[in-house]
Structures are given as structure tokens and as C-alpha cells.
């Protein structure tokens, strides 16, 4: 079974309205931006790790250490992760362009 380890998706939780005490603990926009940047960097590192794993599996196949099915699974996982990342990038660029076209 192929598992997507790029994004850890958890079941949605019930959201509550913030109380006065919770307002003090909320993150600032700068902290949120840093957290989002860290999240993106981690996701890109995972895609890169899958590419490296695919190359290592190919090298092991050449020496006879692994079967062809293991190589194909690793290469397809890497390919799907890269395609998914590319689509996310394309959607982000489209959203940015749409915001820039908005007239105030």
C-alpha cells in the first residue's frame, strides 16, 4: 500500500470560538508565516528524500540487491510526489496572479 508521507492529514476537530484567554496565545502573522515556511520546507525535503530513495533503489537493482517491483514502487512514489508538488506550485502561482489582477 502506498502511503503519502508528504502531508500528515488528521481528522478535522471541532473548532471552538476563541475566548479572551486564547487570544493571548494566538500566533502573530510573522510567526504564522514562519511556521508555513517551515512546513513547505519540510514537504520539499520529503519530496527530495523520495527522489534520493528512488535513485538508491535503482542502484541496488543494478547490483541485484532488490527486485524490480521495489524499484518501480519507489520511482512511482517519487514521481507522484514531484507531480503533486508541481501542481501545488502551479495553483499557488495562479492564485497569486489572480490576486494581482484584482482591482481595488
UniProtKB/TrEMBL annotation:
UniProt keyword Transmembrane helix, yes or no: no
Compartment annotation: Bacterial flagellum basal body
Pfam families the record matches: FliE
Domain of life: Bacteria
Primary localization class, coarse: other
Keywords associated with the record: Bacterial flagellum, Cell projection, Cilium, Flagellum
Stretches for region Disordered: 1-28
Family: Belongs to the FliE family.
Name assigned to this protein: Flagellar hook-basal body complex protein FliE
Species of origin: Paenibacillus enshidis
